[in-house]
Design a protein that fits this description.
single chain; alpha+beta; Aminopeptidase; 6-stranded mixed sheet; 5 helices; 6 strands; GNAT_dom; acyltransferase activity, transferring groups other than amino-acyl groups
């Protein structure tokens, strides 16, 4: 898949995995995100390796991230979206979402999914809605999986 980059002043978004600061992403996810506290470094690294990633940068410093899990034909899952607090309120999350939704390999999908408890207002602007039929959805969720991996 081709690397895509977009620039706005001192900021840029890139899908180049080589630019990602994996220790920084891991630090945020394990200690600040709240949705995957304690996630092991190798799990983050593996998730990035197997995803379409969007790094957000100010000059050369990474300040945000999002990733997509997809078959590139029917479905995409948007996850691990964050922008550091000092850079919120600048329109960067909307720009990041524009780049994700507009990515050429993610066009014509039947379904996009995500889980959020904090930024519903943002995702609604991109057509995300609460589940209209939650009774048909199922999940297998293990919220303690990272605690179990600490014991190994």
């Amino acid at each position: 898949m081709n690397v895509i980059e977009s620039v706005r002043g001192d900021f840029f978004i890139s899908t180049d995995k080589k630019k990602l600061d994996i220790p920084l992403i891991h630090s945020f996810l394990t200690a600040e995100a709240g949705w995957c506290d304690g996630i092991p470094y190798d799990t983050v690294k593996n998730s990035i390796e197997n995803s379409l990633n969007f790094g957000l940068y100010k000059k050369e410093n990474q300040i945000g991230f999002a990733r997509i899990i997809s078959d590139y034909a029917t479905i995409a899952y948007l996850g691990d979206v964050f922008i550091f607090k000092d850079y919120r309120g600048l329109g960067l999350s909307k720009w990041l979402m524009d780049e994700i939704i507009g990515h050429p390999n993610l066009q014509g999908l039947r379904r996009w999914i995500l889980l959020t408890s904090t930024a519903e207002w943002l995702y609604q602007k991109y057509g995300f809605v609460r589940l209209p039929n939650p009774d048909i959805y199922m999940e297998r969720h293990n919220p303690d999986v990272y605690k179990a991996s600490e014991k190994r």
